């Protein structure tokens, strides 16, 4: 509650200070530079001008811009703005004529000369018109900028919600098929190598804990993300035949800094999804290194056509397209993704660099 009130108070204070500054210019700076005794009617006229400036400013801000300009009624907006300006000018002119201000001003500046009525000097009216239009222009700019900021905030919020939903989708896709298949592999291991099966269960439980608890946060520690990758690859290794050459190299000493959870998994998951053949020799290479605050992931795998009917394919995660969007939303220009899939070796290569500073 307090946080929502503070910006309003700051905005109100800014408005008050700006109008005080304008009032000082209108009532003090210009009149005092003339060094004459001005009639009280002049001060009323200046006050009337300031009043019309304020009325035009807020009328434009809260009615004209939202109800006309933002609804595409541009010509109506321009017409109403010009009409209001001319109306204010007409009222000011009528006030001057009513109190006989031209003669009073003449007597203040040139009391020794008799007053002779002259045609109205429209340069003063032009100044008043420009002053009112300037106020309308400023209020229009303020509202447009505020709307742009609000819209930008809403877009960021929607994109962030989309990222969150995509992450939840990724979690949901990883959970069923991967965990069930891994449990089946572990069950088979219990009849062959009990110790290895126990280690696999430990890795699986650690992965489940990470997916359930760490991914609910905006960031996790790099060490936990890398442990998750190690466990994922080792459990996937249980399902691979001798025809698959799997090489995982993760830099031993890395700085434990925050990173978005499950950010690296789609690239590694993609290796197993497209880089493994049941009949042909396959290879998967995964390298993770860190230099300063920059994390680098490299993956290499042979390209094989995926089986669209397999459950693994149906539950394969959010895909690299959505991962690119997630990287852009979270890290922007601080990350660089390079994908090479057109080479003589028929390899799919990815290189991801993220500045985690």
From TrEMBL:
Q: What species was this sequence derived from?
A: Cyclobacterium qasimii M12-11B
List each copy of the Signal transduction histidine kinase internal region domain by range.
166-243
The GO cellular component terms are: membrane
- Positions the record marks as coiled coil are none
Q: Quick check: keyword Transmembrane in the entry?
A: yes
Q: Which UniProt keywords apply?
A: Membrane, Transmembrane, Transmembrane helix
Q: Which InterPro entries match?
A: Bact_2-comp_sensor_kinase (IPR050640), HATPase_C_sf (IPR036890), Sig_transdc_His_kin_internal (IPR010559)
The record ties this protein, via Gene3D superfamilies, to: Histidine kinase-like ATPase, C-terminal domain
What's the name of the protein? Putative two-component system sensor protein
Recall the GO molecular function terms of this protein's record: phosphorelay sensor kinase activity
- Show the stretches that span the lipid bilayer: 12-30, 42-63, 75-95, 126-145
């Amino acid at each position: 509650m307090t946080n929502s009130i503070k910006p309003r108070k700051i905005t109100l204070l800014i408005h008050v200070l700006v109008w005080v500054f304008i009032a000082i210019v209108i009532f003090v700076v210009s009149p005092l530079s003339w060094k004459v005794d001005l009639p009280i009617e002049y001060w009323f006229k200046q006050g009337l001008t300031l009043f019309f400036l304020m009325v035009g400013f807020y009328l434009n801000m809260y009615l004209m811009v939202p109800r006309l300009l933002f609804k595409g009624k541009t010509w109506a907006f321009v017409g109403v703005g010009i009409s209001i300006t001319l109306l204010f000018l007409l009222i000011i002119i009528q006030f001057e004529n009513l109190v006989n201000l031209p003669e009073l001003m003449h007597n203040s500046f040139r009391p020794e000369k008799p007053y002779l009525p002259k045609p109205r000097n429209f340069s003063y009216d032009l100044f008043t018109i420009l002053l009112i239009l300037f106020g309308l222009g400023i209020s229009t700019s303020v509202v447009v900028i505020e709307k742009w900021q609000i819209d930008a905030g809403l877009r960021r919020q929607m994109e962030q919600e989309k990222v969150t939903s995509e992450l939840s989708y990724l979690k949901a896709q990883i959970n069923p098929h991967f965990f069930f298949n891994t449990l089946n592999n572990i069950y088979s291991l219990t009849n062959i190598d009990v110790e290895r099966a126990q280690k696999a269960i430990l890795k699986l439980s650690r992965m489940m804990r990470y997916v359930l608890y760490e991914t609910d946060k905006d960031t996790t520690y790099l060490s936990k993300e890398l442990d998750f990758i190690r466990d994922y690859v080792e459990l996937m290794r249980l399902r691979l035949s001798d025809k698959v050459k799997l090489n995982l190299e993760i830099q031993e000493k890395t700085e434990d800094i925050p990173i978005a959870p499950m950010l690296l998994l789609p690239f590694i998951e993609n290796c197993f999804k497209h880089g493994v053949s049941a009949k042909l020799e396959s290879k998967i290479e995964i390298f993770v290194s860190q230099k300063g605050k920059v994390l680098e992931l490299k993956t290499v795998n042979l390209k094989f056509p995926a089986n669209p009917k397999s459950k693994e394919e149906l539950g394969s995660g959010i895909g690299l397209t959505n991962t690119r969007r997630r990287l852009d939303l979270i890290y922007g220009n601080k990350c660089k993704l390079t994908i090479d899939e057109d080479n003589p070796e028929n390899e799919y290569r990815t290189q991801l660099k993220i500045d985690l500073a």
